[in-house]
Amino acid sequence: MARELQKAMPEAELQSIPEALQEDQLMVKAECVGLVFPMHYFGLPMQVEEFLQKLTFLESPYTFAIVTCGVPYWGRPFMDAEKILKEKNCRLHAAWYVRLVSNYIPYRDIAADWRIRIRAWLAERKLKNIIAAIKERKAHTTWQLLKKFCGNFHAKWLAGQHEIDTKFLCDKEKCTACGLCERICHRDNIKRPEGQPVWQHHCVECLGCLHICPVKAIDYGEITKGRKRYRHKAVKITDLLRKT
Ligand SMILES: Cc1cc2nc3c(=O)[nH]c(=O)nc-3n(C[C@H](O)[C@H](O)[C@H](O)COP(=O)(O)O)c2cc1C
Ligand code: SF4
Ligand code: SF4
């Protein structure tokens, strides 16, 4: 999504959120700032919340957010993002959901290929309209359904998130010790003293390690066994790996 935006607005600078989080402070001097991130448990992924907290705005930009999701409208990602932005004297001028494919395989399997293709086509179409609106610096609001219910659900998830990796299993028979799971984890939450991953309990449940494993050696308990793994067709493995 972010790359497509940049193609349409070549003057824009892309910044990866997990990489930016390596910095202690993030100063932003721009006339327009866009946030692109996935919805996690009806709200902000933990890394996005940390990222927003670290921002200091040196001028007052037009700010927009695009949230990718498996199921749109349920949740409160924009409301929660705006709350943090307001503390920094900034507001969210425009917000959109773009429905892609849910990669949350503990809940259900990845959609069929034909559905993935249709969603990608619809997403590309929606993004064109979004780009036109951003270029004109238009305001845009969107639904955020069941905000209170989703807020409680999100808070409960955040409280238990770090320990979620106690449910992860690695099948030693399948694992080839390739190291990709360790290299995708931006939380440095995977060590491999004997080749196979050992989780360190500061997980943010991005599920990157499950989806990247080329031999499907990693599972979330028994529930993800036999389910597909997924990566958006425009995303290369090297795009996802840690740079350091
Ligand atoms: C921990 C976790 C929680 C998720 N929660 C939601 C959710 O509440 N609502 C939703 O629509 N999608 C949810 N998803 C699905 C992602 O938002 C979706 O897979 C992502 O936006 C797709 O973007 P991508 O193709 O760039 O990965 C969740 C995914 C993960 C890993
Ligand atoms: S990505 Fe899979 S095969 Fe590679 S080290 Fe991790 S668990 Fe093993
Ligand atoms: S799900 Fe895997 S890649 Fe993501 S933070 Fe947890 S251990 Fe790291």
Write the layout of secondary structure elements.
Blueprint: H1 2-8, H2 17-20, E1 26-28, E2 32-38, H3 46-54, E3 55-57, E4 62-69, H4 77-87, E5 94-99, H5 113-135, H6 147-160, E6 168-170, H7 180-184, E7 190-191, E8 198-199, H8 208-212, E9 218-220, H9 237-240
The structure holds flavin mononucleotide and iron/sulfur cluster (SF4) (2 copies).
Tell me the number of structural domains.
Answer: 2
Between the first and last Cα atoms, what is the distance in angstroms? 24 Å
Question: Runs with pLDDT <50, length 5+?
Answer: none
The shape is globular
Q: Radius of gyration, rounded?
A: 18 Å
In this entry the ligands are:
flavin mononucleotide, iron/sulfur cluster
CATH C-level category of the largest domain: Alpha Beta
The helix/strand class is: alpha/beta
Work out the helix count.
9
CATH architecture of the largest domain: 3-Layer(aba) Sandwich
Order of the strands making up the biggest sheet = 2-4-5
Quick one: how many beta strands?
9
The fraction of residues in strands falls at 15-25%
Q: Assign the CATH topology of the largest domain.
A: Rossmann fold
**Largest beta-sheet details:** 3 strands, parallel
Q: Helix share of residues? A: 25-40%
Summarize model confidence as the mean pLDDT. Answer: 96
Descriptive tags:
alpha/beta, Alpha-Beta Plaits, 2 domains, 3-stranded parallel β-sheet, two-stranded parallel ribbon, 9 strands, 15% strand, binds flavin mononucleotide, binds iron/sulfur cluster
